[in-house]
Structure formats: C-alpha cells, structure tokens
C-alpha cells in the first residue's frame, strides 16, 4: 500500500462525505482545483462558495469551472476568507458540509502573496458557525515557504484549542517529506 499525499488524502475524505445537494466552501480558490473537486461532488443541486484575494486566481478558477461545465452552482468572491461572514448567504449558516483551505501561495502566481496566520485563523473561527454537524474542514499547511511555518503554528494552536465536545481534529503529515513539508488538519464537527 502506498500512503496518499496529503492533498489526495484530503480529497478522498471529502469524497466519502459530500453528496449532490450539499453546500461547500473553498476558502482559497487559487487555480480552482479544489473548487472543481467540490463542484463535482455537490452538483447538481448543491452550491460551492469560493474565496480568493487575487483576481488572477478567480479568473483561473472561473475558466476551470467553465471548461468542466461546472460554472453553475458556484459563487466566486474576490475577498479574504476572513470576511466570509459578509459574503455567505444567511441560509447557509449551519449547513456547510465541507470547507477546504489550501494555504500558502498561488502556484504560478506571485509567491510573495501568501495566506497569513491572522486571516486564516479568523476565517477558521468564523467558519465554526457555518459548518453543519458532521461537516468537515480540511486545512492544508505548507511549511517550507517564508511565512509557512508561522501560519502552520497558528493553525495548529487554533486546532488544539477546539473543544473536544464540538470538534475532533486529525493531524496528518509525513515525517520524512523533503523540502516544502505539508501538514493536513481535518476538523470534524459534531
């Protein structure tokens, strides 16, 4: 058996959970791969909300969804994931089945534009009231780029502080992963 890379493991977990009609959030749209994955899982009948602060990222995401025939049912927001309270429809509160965070910088974009600990933790805190019981948030942290280790530490501190009665947190990472090591956090809400 070959152990799956963290991003593959993330998608495998979510594919067991998500069904057509569900609501899902991509907190960091980037190149649109996670948005497309979520759309394939929840459409028809569901909705995907995707956030990014870079117009370039949302353009790529929009193009990916269009080419896949998945543009319907997806709402893209040019905004920080920390501001999700201001953008998500009130009817979604308590009903998100999945949320995906793929932190760091946009591959192929400006590597100086990165996710930051304060906005990521603020987004995770705000997200708590939007998640459905049984919902899952996955947080992929990249530790090898400038700022990555600090953000990873902030995410870990946030996860450690979650009440066991409200959420369970799984941490997965390869101890011998070369270069830009990754840690995947999976938060399962009760």
Spans of 5+ residues with little confidence (pLDDT < 50)? none
Biggest sheet: strands, sense, closure?
A: 7 strands, mixed
> What is Rg?
15 Å
How many strands appear in the DSSP assignment?
Answer: 7
State the helical fraction: 25-40%
Assembly category: single chain
How do the helices and strands follow one another from N- to C-terminus? HEHEHEHEHEHEE
Per the principal axes of the C-alpha atoms, what is the gross shape? globular
Q: What structural category characterises the helix and strand content?
A: alpha/beta
How far apart, in Å, are the first and last alpha carbons? 31 Å
Number of helices: 6
Let me know the CATH homologous superfamily: Vaccinia Virus protein VP39
Q: What is the name of the CATH topology?
A: Rossmann fold
| Neighbour order of strands in the largest sheet | 3-2-1-4-5-7-6
How much beta, percentage-wise? 25-35%
CATH classification class? Alpha Beta
Give the mean pLDDT.
92
Instruction: Tell me which CATH architecture applies here.
Output: 3-Layer(aba) Sandwich
**Number of discrete domains:** 1
Give a short overview.
This protein is α/β, with parallel strands linked by helices and 190 residues long.
Give a written overview of the molecule:
The chain is of the alpha/beta class. It has a single domain, classed as Vaccinia Virus protein VP39 (Rossmann fold). It has six helices and seven strands. The protein has a seven-stranded mixed β-sheet, sandwiched between helices. Helix 3 links the parallel strand 2 and strand 3. The longest helix has 13 residues, at 55-67. The model has no long low-confidence stretch (mean pLDDT 92).
């Amino acid at each position: 058996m070959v152990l799956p890379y963290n991003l593959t493991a993330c998608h495998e977990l979510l594919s067991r959970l998500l069904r057509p009609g569900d609501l899902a959030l991509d907190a960091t749209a980037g190149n649109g791969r996670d948005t497309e994955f979520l759309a394939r899982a929840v459409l028809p009948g569901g909705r995907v909300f995707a956030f990014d602060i870079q117009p370039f990222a949302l353009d790529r995401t929009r193009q990916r969804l269009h080419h896949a025939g998945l543009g319907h049912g997806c709402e893209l927001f040019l905004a920080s994931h920390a501001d999700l309270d201001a953008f998500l429809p009130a009817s979604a509160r308590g009903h998100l089945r999945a949320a995906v965070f793929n932190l760091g910088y946009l591959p192929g974009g400006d590597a100086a534009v990165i996710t930051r600990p304060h906005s990521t933790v603020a987004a995770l805190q705000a997200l708590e009231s939007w998640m459905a019981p049984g919902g899952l948030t996955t947080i992929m942290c990249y530790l090898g780029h400038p700022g990555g280790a600090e953000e990873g530490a902030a995410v870990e501190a946030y996860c450690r502080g979650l009440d066991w009665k409200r959420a369970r947190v799984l941490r997965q990472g390869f101890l011998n992963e070369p270069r830009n090591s990754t840690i995947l956090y999976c938060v399962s809400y009760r």
